[in-house]
Design brief:
The protein is of the alpha+beta class and 177 residues long. Helices cover 20% and strands 41% of the residues.
Length: 177
C-alpha cells in the first residue's frame, strides 16, 4: 500500500479529550503502522526507530521522507502525540470509542454517526450504548479531525480516540539522542 509521505499535515495540532486531557502533536516525530510485524526486519526497526509499540507501530524522529524506505512499506503513517498533563507518548490507531447515555442504543444513531463521518465497527456486547468506530475515509487523521462532529451528537457522553501509549516524552527524547 502506498502512503503519501506528506500525510502528517492532515493531523490536528491538539486533540482535546474529556475536558482535562489534551494530546499535543509532536512535529519532529511520526509513527509507521505496519500491517504485519514481519513486513520489515525487526532488527532494522529496532535500529532506526526511537520506540516501537505493540510490535507493529514504530516511532521515528524526523519526517517520513527521511525514513522513506520504511515509510513506503507502511500500512499507514500517523502523527505522534504527547498526552498532557503527564507527558506519555501516544499514537492514534484510527479507532474511536463512543458511548451514549445509559439506555440509548448505538443502533438507533447509526445514520447520525455516518453523517458525522464514521462507521460502527463493533458495538460493545455488554454495553449496547457503546461502540468502536472508524472514519468512513479509513484515514487515521480523520478519526481525530472529525471528533467534534461526534461530540455534537445528542446524547453522546464519551468520545475518545484510541491511542497506543508509550513512554514519557522525556524518555523518548533521551532515546532519540
Amino acid at each position: 500500500m502506498s502512503v503519501p509521505l506528506d500525510s502528517l499535515e492532515q493531523f490536528p495540532q491538539q486533540v482535546q479529550v474529556q475536558r482535562s486531557m489534551v494530546y499535543v502533536r509532536q512535529s519532529d516525530y511520526f509513527a509507521v503502522h505496519l500491517q504485519e510485524p514481519s513486513q520489515t526486519s525487526p532488527a532494522r526497526l529496532a535500529s532506526e526507530a526511537v520506540l516501537t509499540l505493540e510490535d507493529h507501530i514504530a516511532i521515528f524522529r524526523g519526517s517520513p521522507a527521511t525514513h522513506r524506505s520504511i515509510a513506503t512499506q507502511a500500512e499507514a503513517i500517523s502523527a505522534v502525540y504527547v498526552l498532557e498533563p503527564g507527558g506519555s507518548i501516544a499514537v492514534p490507531t484510527g479507532q474511536v470509542f463512543l458511548r451514549f447515555a445509559e439506555g440509548v442504543a448505538v443502533e438507533t444513531h447509526q445514520n447520525t454517526i455516518q453523517q458525522a463521518g464514521y462507521q460502527v465497527t463493533e458495538i460493545v456486547f455488554y454495553a449496547p450504548n457503546a461502540a468502536w468506530l472508524r472514519p468512513l475515509s479509513g484515514e487515521i487523521a480523520d478519526a481525530l479531525r472529525l471528533l467534534p462532529q461526534l461530540e455534537a451528537i445528542d446524547p453522546v457522553e464519551v468520545v475518545e480516540p484510541q491511542m497506543v501509549m508509550g513512554r514519557s516524552k522525556r524518555e523518548l527524547m533521551q532515546s532519540a539522542t
